[in-house]
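Review form for a predicted model. The reviewer records the input and the model, then writes brief findings.
Reviewer: anonymous (R2)
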Amino acid sequence: MRGFLFTGYDPNSSEKSKFEQLLDLFMELLSYTNGDASEALQWMNQLDKQYELTNSEYGMGDFIEDLKQNGYLKEDDHNGSFKITPKTEQGIRKKSLEEIFGKLRKTKSGDHRTFKPGQGDEINPETRPFRFGDMLEQIDFTSSIMNAQINHGIDSFRMNEEDLAIRETDFKTQTSTVLMIDISHSMILYGEDRITPAKKVAMALSEMITTKYPKDTLDIVVFGNDAWPVAIKDLPYLEVGPFHTNTVAGLELAMDLLRRRRNPNKQIFMITDGKPTCLKEGKRYYKNAFGLDRKITNRCLNLAAQCKKLKIPITTFMIATDPYLQRFVQEFTETNNGKAFFASLDKLGSFIFKDFESGKKKTLY
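Model under review:
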């Protein structure tokens, strides 16, 4: 007889080893210290003093040694400083992916599929009767033989056209995405850390695309006074600078990157919390941080219209609540015929992932 055995809950018990528990905390702290291993370890020592993370059997020195032994940390022989390794960089991306996906509700939607069956690379579990024009490769012979046995019997076995069963395959859309991240000073203004959630989303999205959708492409663009591309491996080290917000430069670079991509489906995701405040005119920067400057916003709207002509939708994730800024984002979105989400920091990842997945379930002609 089957049954269930209930025992008392012990909050101190865990299936993870002490090293694994501390490693989770170390990975989380690296996102906040911009990949600075020494600073993250200093924070861990402070937390250990306050919350007794280690014990007499396993100390912080053991943890640091295990980090080096397991390839998460390397020490400079000359000055004794610590740096994280590519294994740690990927670990941060995986942790971000697990953290964000853990907040998403389970759905019945497919993975990147369109609603149209055809000669794709994803096998459909259902079969249908043969139709003129179907190819030989689509015939499910197991189901077809079973149909022939049922229809004609084993003694006079034969297979006719009506016995044939076709197993279809589903197309998967291929998409080129540019994720734009605002790294202007306002991303840490008023004591609110907005850059860390943005980095986590970028790391999670990059990890999902490279592992789950390897035929897709993802480019990361950061923009302040200027805009430049960032490699996936460099995402943990992103920092906010003393910059204004040159949204125009970010959009121009994003469009240039997408022009080089051969995928028919292209899109831009833009994470920002502030208004566009900067333009570059030759070697000179035109800046205005007071209100919405029409000289700057008109350039943004022109680029939004250009993207619409190129069939590049822009989805803006606005992490600010100022009504006049939201009105500008709405105007920008209407010009592009894109989408806008006014997302809180804790919901940012959920919004982006749901929108990314929903975009994979339709075919863009």
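Findings: The chain has three domains: 18-84, 116-171, 175-359.
Further findings: DSSP finds ten helices and 13 strands in the chain.
Recommendation: see findings above.
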